[in-house]
Design goal:
The chain has 163 residues and is of the alpha+beta class. It has helices spanning 64-75, 126-137, 139-155, and strands at residues 2-4, 7-9, 16-30, 38-55, 79-83, 88-104, 110-121.
Length: 163
């Protein structure tokens, strides 16, 4: 489904039923006399992803997965968000986690937990994220894979060798 850092969203951990993405772009505005405002594009704004889902421990999901996400948020680190299809969304921080527990057992344990996870993108572009993923997260393996990809490209006559 989706990976945030090393946390994998799945039926066994947490499954989301809805992914919402809200992207914005910044434009500065200057008032003009007798005319419409003049605007200037300043660049990309916020990129926010919201995941909504439900944990029903009897059938799917582990409530402790929400604790893992809270611990990740407490670190304040940016985590690479990758879809199961291979799409790299970028580096995101966890800005909010809401949970609603319902349908309780006699001992107070919930039978159903609905959650909303809000993520905000903090990197500048996808290329930066890929380079960081290759360099930091994968370490030497990433360097080896990158070098192998370059060598394959050279053998196919694509690109130039960089020392």
């Amino acid at each position: 489904m989706l990976c945030l850092g090393l946390f994998v969203f799945s039926l066994d951990t947490l499954s989301y039923q809805e992914l919402q993405r809200r992207s914005s772009w910044k434009h500065a505005s200057q008032a003009l006399v007798g005319a419409r405002n003049a605007t200037q594009y300043l660049g990309p704004g916020d990129d926010i992803i919201t995941l909504n889902g439900t944990v029903v421990p009897e059938f799917a999901g582990i409530p402790a997965s929400l604790t893992v996400l809270r611990l990740m948020a407490d670190q304040g680190a940016a985590w690479v968000l990758v879809e199961g299809t291979g799409t790299i969304y970028g580096a995101f921080v966890i800005t909010e986690l809401q949970e609603t527990k319902t349908l309780f057992y006699v001992d107070g344990e919930p039978r159903r937990i609905e959650f909303t996870l809000t993520l905000q993108r903090v990197d500048q572009d996808a290329q930066e994220t890929v380079e960081q993923l290759m360099a930091d997260s994968m370490g030497d393996l990433g360097a080896l894979l990158q070098d192998a990809a370059g060598n394959i490209g050279l053998s196919l006559g694509v690109g130039a060798r960089v020392a």
